[in-house]
């Protein structure tokens, strides 16, 4: 399955309801898995992003659908990145002319 990194920032609504964030995180992880995804790690971070998740989704479309569903709730904004393993990268580089 394709791997993804999901960077998230709390919105004003998310900050205002921060006490419910642990429950929302658990629900979000379960929702991603219900869509066929697999979460490898989830972190609350300091710096440019509030949360970082790494996982796999069945397709780019599934990952995008999840990110849209998550964002539509209004608690976070997201930036999604397709991630390639070292082996995938090596295979791509091996195809260079």
Summary tags:
4 helices; 97 residues; elongated; four-stranded antiparallel β-sheet; Alpha-Beta Plaits; alpha+beta; 42% helix
Write the topology of this structure.
Elements: E1 3-10, H1 12-16, H2 21-34, E2 38-44, E3 51-56, H3 60-72, E4 76-83, H4 86-94
From the N-terminal CA to the C-terminal CA, the straight-line distance is 27 Å
The CATH topology? Alpha-Beta Plaits
Task: Label the CATH architecture.
Answer: 2-Layer Sandwich
Helix content: 40-55%
Structural class: alpha+beta
Full CATH superfamily name: Lrp/AsnC effector binding domain/regulation of amino acid metabolism (RAM) domain
Largest sheet: 4 strands, antiparallel
Order of helices and strands: EHHEEHEH
Question: Explain this structure to me?
Answer:
The chain is of the alpha+beta class and 97 residues long. It has one domain: 2-Layer Sandwich (Alpha-Beta Plaits). 42% of the residues lie in helices and 30% in strands. The protein has four helices and four strands; from the N terminus they run βααββαβα. It has helices at 12-16, 21-34, 60-72, 86-94, and strands spanning 3-10, 38-44, 51-56, 76-83. The model has no long low-confidence stretch (mean pLDDT 97).
Short description:
With 97 residues, the chain is of the alpha+beta class. The protein has four helices and four strands; from the N terminus they run βααββαβα. The chain has one domain: Alpha-Beta Plaits (2-Layer Sandwich).
């Amino acid at each position: 399955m394709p791997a993804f990194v999901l960077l998230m920032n709390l919105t004003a609504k998310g900050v205002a309801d921060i006490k419910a964030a642990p429950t929302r995180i658990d629900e979000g992880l379960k929702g991603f898995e219900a869509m066929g995804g697999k979460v490898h790690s989830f972190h609350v971070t300091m710096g440019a992003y509030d949360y970082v998740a790494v996982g796999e989704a069945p397709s780019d479309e599934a990952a995008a659908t999840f990110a849209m569903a998550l964002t539509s709730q209004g608690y976070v904004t997201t930036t999604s990145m397709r991630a390639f393993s070292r082996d995938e990268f090596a295979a791509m580089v091996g195809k260079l002319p």
